[in-house]
Amino acid sequence: MPPARKTGTSTSETESSAILAILVSEGKLKQEDAEKAKMAFVTSGVSVLDWLVQQELLKSDDVVVARAKYLNVPFVKMSEVAIAPVALGRVDKSIAARLNLIPFEFKPITNELSVAMANPMDLAAIEFLEKKTGCRIKPFAALPNEVKDSIATSYEQSLSTEVTAALKEAGSQGDVEVKTVNIRKVGEFIREAPIAKIVTTVLEFAMKSRASDVHIEPLEDRTRVRYRIDGILHEKLVLPRKIHDALVSRIKILSDMKIDEKRIPQDGRFNFTTDMDEVDLRVSSLPTVHGEKIVMRLLKKSGGVPTMQELGLRGRALKNLEEAILRPHGIILVTGPTGSGKTTTLYSVLFKINTVKVNILTLEDPVEYQMPGVNQVQINPQAGLTFASGLRSFLRQDPNVIMVGEVRDEETAELAIQA
């Protein structure tokens, strides 16, 4: 049985003073507030650090980071680290929850398991893990709430079982590499359940986390999976480099791309459906130094278009936009980084003004939502239909409203202003 989980950590007077000194030197705490805390300890007996947090003079997160520095233990922020399924599979969820820790990286060469802990000085827990896993444990300090959240989400989305099964399958059939000549055998391998399950789980996680893009990137020693959520890329998974080629081939087959063509970029698309939702995926492959990189853009097909209020517009900002879209002339520009919701914002505007009295034309790449009553056009550069040429044609279609998906060149910008 694992040792009982500790509800808190006692901090000695010497340790508290050292932590206070670190916080003051880093500008996290004022010297006069530190002195007040020491007086409060004398008069009330309340811990110096606890008193500062209670009085909101100090953040509890800063205390954890400073304590890690005092103890000379590396600190890790769980929101910025990818949890390797191989590491996760070495510690059961029940043990992780009981001890408030989570493994996030495993180095087979040194047999070292990196573990994020709410209390990195819990020597009994470290000793127990070493006996249980047979690995050398490298403890990291982490914020207790982040460790708890990571346990809840990471084990639910774990790919450890699927990755292990895929590795066993690869071992029985030999390494499946990009340069394999026998394409038929590669095809048989990538249709096997483990590889298919990994792709499914990666996409299900993307849908649950409301990601706009999924990046599957080959690195020298591993494959990382990153998700763009609210415009920011988050590294969530690390997979063994050994299965990268089979994983890419599986996605390329689903996207109607050539699996034996690895020298040039390719584009494709396919639909993915779960019990609750359906998405259309735009897939792009790109040959890199370490192998092919895959990027999948998720385009939600169900659920309808959110209203401007549901997007978070409130007060004066909402009133200004509502007044602007009702004017018969003018231009509205929506700008922002990739995946930030520009197109969705424009669709919510079109949804509000879409009536039989107006002729609405859209020029997009691709058409992300299909709206009844709106004339939507997808660009086709190979056929000569670009944003600029399409916009020029739109002006002869007696439009009331034109939506242009991207304004990235001078010609399109000039036409938009003239229109």
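(the above was protein one; protein two follows)
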Amino acid sequence: MILINLLPHREAARKKRQDTFNISLAASALAGGLIAGVIFLWIQGQISSQQDQNTFLSREIKKLDEQIKEIAALEAEIAALRARQLAVENLQADRNLPVHLLSELGKQLPEGVYVVSMRQNNQLLTLQGVAQSNERVSELLRNLANNTPWFAKPELVEIVAGSVTLGKNDQRRVSNFTMRVGLVRSSEAQKAQPVASAVSVVPSAASAAVPAAAMPAKK
């Protein structure tokens, strides 16, 4: 017996393939949606966790900033206190500085050199005086540079030839000089004094006083 299939089998096969494709497409879309949802939720969780960490770090940074400001304020107060303490110590140490200055200057003046004026500006002393010769001025510079811890870095500003009249017929040539020399703090000078004393050379006119008005003596 011969069987003849009169149904449209090609259309049925096509429809079956189409249904299978649609089902596969829907399943893929559903799986993709589930995966995307899981990834989205995971990313949201990571973002939320990071935001919590950022908030925590921001609070801690603000606390640290406040502590840093307090520390900076304390350091500024400590620096100000140290500066005031140093100023007080310097004032106490420098109370006898004029006495040391005049005493030491009298020791270091060579014979034939006289100081006529002194002017102090902070730690800088300007001397104006009269010397019998330029060599005496050079000797004074060497003495102030090497033989005393109370002076530092003497500098000759100018030296001008001049003359003075000692008598009716006695006129002498002299050297009018101006020099600057730094003053050393008492605390520093006292530390360096033993070393300076070991190498100092006392001039023959060490006991001479510094006059207010200078007149060179006869040789």
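Reviewer note on protein two: DSSP finds four helices and four strands in the chain.
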